[in-house]
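Why does residue order matter? Because the sequence determines the fold. Keep that principle in mind as you read this record.
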Amino acid sequence: MDNKEFNKVLKVCWEHDVFVVVKPITRGRYKLAISRNKREKLGENVYEDKPVNKTLIFEKNGKKYRQDVTIPSVHQMIEKLYFDLYEKNFKGMEPQPVEPLDYDLFINNKAQKNENTYSFAPVFD
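Structure:
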């Protein structure tokens, strides 16, 4: 996913009060929570700063199997969760357009504030 697409996904999720929250457990280890309308649901998996390669050994029908698995980093997982939330709940939605700033209004307000400021310099008669 490129940056433009990810920014679009983030904006749509944030506009609908959906956030991915990072909960630190220990140094370099985190759990992720999904917050919707200020209600959080904490995930079970623990993620680290960098991707981790692990080997899983499991038994099925009396035979032992070995599988190499890569657990993504917390940053990769945040991006994936936002994309999955967008796909599941808000697919096809576009973020609200942002109105351009009125620079004249900003400059006029700044000038008015400067006129109304008072200096506390001592006055000598």
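The beta strands are 18-26, 29-36, 39-42, 47-48, 52-60, 63-71.
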